[in-house]
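Consider this one:
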Amino acid sequence: MSRADSRGILFDLDGTLVDSLPDIIDSFLYAFPANGLQAPTYAQVRALIGLPLDIMYAEFAPQHVPALCASYREHYPLNFHRNSRPYPGVLELLHTLRERGYLLAVATTKKSPMARRFVDAMGLGDVLHHVQGTDDFPHKPAPDVLHRALAALGTQGLWMVGDTSLDLRAGKAAGLRTYGVTWGTHPVEELARETPDELQPDLKRLLERLPPLS
């Protein structure tokens, strides 16, 4: 398949397409008092967003990881939609990309079943061609989840769009151009150190950078 036939555009989910951090962090913090433990600060948790859940909990209470993960997985599915909303312009952008013939997938650290449920609840399921979670294989910055998303799309990739350094590293490892959005999790200075092809406060520039499809 030639580069001209490449149609795949991959997006991280939390902090990139959807403003979901308050619900994620609230559920993460909930697990500590539920297990008789002192919770870390909001800022301490935010700095770890993008890593798998067990690795995040291991930073604060390594001996209690299974119990904390279980509490999170009990709480989050009941509360993930309380404050989470797509970022302004996201739905319109995805519609435009799809209408132009691009193939769109999410590549997220969430497990696939929860990611699909979340995407549908946010009203994005009908405009995405595939939702790929990280299921028992290496997480970002390894490119595995990106490769699987592109395989499901049946095309080569053009861009990886994300809000964390992990997203940008994974995109580079997968041979994709990288687009960092500054409205999500990691500060702009941290994203800039990864030297993405684009670093923007919104997604408008993505439309300008895409090649016309044959």
In short: The longest strand covers residues 157-162. Residues 65-79 form the longest helix (15 residues). The chain is about 40% helix and 15% strand. Strands lie at 8-11, 18-19, 85-86, 103-107, 130-132, 157-162, 177-181, 198-200.
